[in-house]
């Protein structure tokens, strides 16, 4: 039985919620439950209201906002155990496994940030495909203030998302930025009023669910695999994933639906 991380289904969506009062610290227990949940969701089928078997098409990751916190980072007490090189490498390896399980999930993951996302909280958000933040959100990779560094993928994902200059400024100073600044620099994709991050994430998720299951999955695959390759190599990946979609039959159904002026009925649904 999980204590800190659970999920519920809602019309093709899996809403994963972290609940670890008082500030949703990203402890090893929370990390292990996130690993378990994303592994479970990758193969799970569930029955919808019409008793049809369905797959998870989009995941929304959010948290119960205790004391205005989305995730307030790792448990600082755990840093007392960091005495050797091996200790640091082991801790980083664990938290990278957690964020990689989110980043490598086959279906889109939308992060609904509804409060402070500091340290590991920002790293979890970075691992998601799309980030929606409420006006009270706060971001920061503040680990250097405590003599460590972002070891859950932060030093690698942040520069790739917002560029090396601003990423180095954030990581080396440990500064915090508000949601408006996060939107300006491209750390988040949408800013909404306080309390509306989850509802906005659901709206976006429904837009994704309406599309071809395999088309969405392969589009994400192509972007993720080609992101750090040369353009010529990335274009070859694009050819491959388009071929994969054609095998699914979705392009044929999409074309027929367009010509017949109806909504597509993709078999992947």
Word description of this protein:
The protein has two domains: 204 residues, 2-enoyl-CoA Hydratase, Chain A, domain 1, CATH 3.90.226; 48 residues, Lyase 2-enoyl-coa Hydratase, Chain  A, domain 2 (Orthogonal Bundle), CATH 1.10.12. Helices cover 45% and strands 18% of the residues. The chain starts with a strand and ends in a 10-residue tail after the last helix. About 2% of the residues have low confidence.
Give me a quick take on this structure.
This protein is α/β, with parallel strands linked by helices. The chain contains ten helices and twelve strands. The longest helix is centred in the middle third of the chain and has 19 residues, at 85-103.
Biggest sheet strand order reads 1-2-5-7-9-12
Q: Calculate the mean pLDDT score and round it.
A: 93
Bin the helical content: 40-55%
The CATH class label of the largest domain is Alpha Beta
Structural class: alpha/beta
Per CATH, the architecture of the largest domain is Alpha-Beta Complex
CATH H-level superfamily title of the largest domain:
2-enoyl-CoA Hydratase, Chain A, domain 1
Rounded Rg: 19 Å
Sheet with the most strands, sense and barrel status: 6 strands, mixed
Query: Are there runs of 5+ residues with pLDDT below 50, and where?
Result: 49-53
Overall 3D form? globular
């Amino acid at each position: 039985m999980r204590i800190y991380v659970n999920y519920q289904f809602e019309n093709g969506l899996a809403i994963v919620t972290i609940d670890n009062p008082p500030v949703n610290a990203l402890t090893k227990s929370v990390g292990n439950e996130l690993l378990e949940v994303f592994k479970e969701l990758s193969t799970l089928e569930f029955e919808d209201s019409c008793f049809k078997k369905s797959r998870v098409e989009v995941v929304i990751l959010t948290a119960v906002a205790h004391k205005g916190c989305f995730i307030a980072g790792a448990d600082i007490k755990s840093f007392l155990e960091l005495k050797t090189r091996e200790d640091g490498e082991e801790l980083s390896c664990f938290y990278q496994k957690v964020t990689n399980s989110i980043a490598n999930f086959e279906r889109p993951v939308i992060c609904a940030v509804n409060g402070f996302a500091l340290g590991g909280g920002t790293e979890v958000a970075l691992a998601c495909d799309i980030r929606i933040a409420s006006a009270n959100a706060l971001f920061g990779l503040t680990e250097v203030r405590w003599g460590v560094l972002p070891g859950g993928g932060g030093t690698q994902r942040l520069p790739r998302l917002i560029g090396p200059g601003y990423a180095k400024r954030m990581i080396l100073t440990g500064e915090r930025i508000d949601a408006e600044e996060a939107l300006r620099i491209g750390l988040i994709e949408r800013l909404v009023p306080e309390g509306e991050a989850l509802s906005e994430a659901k709206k976006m998720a429904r837009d994704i669910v309406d599309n071809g299951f395999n088309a969405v999955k392969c589009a994400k695959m192509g972007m993720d695999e080609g992101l750090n390759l040369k353009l010529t190599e990335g274009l070859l990946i694009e050819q491959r994933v388009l071929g994969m979609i054609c095998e699914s039959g979705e392009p044929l159904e999409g074309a027929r639906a367009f010509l017949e002026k109806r909504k597509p009925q993709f078999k992947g649904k």
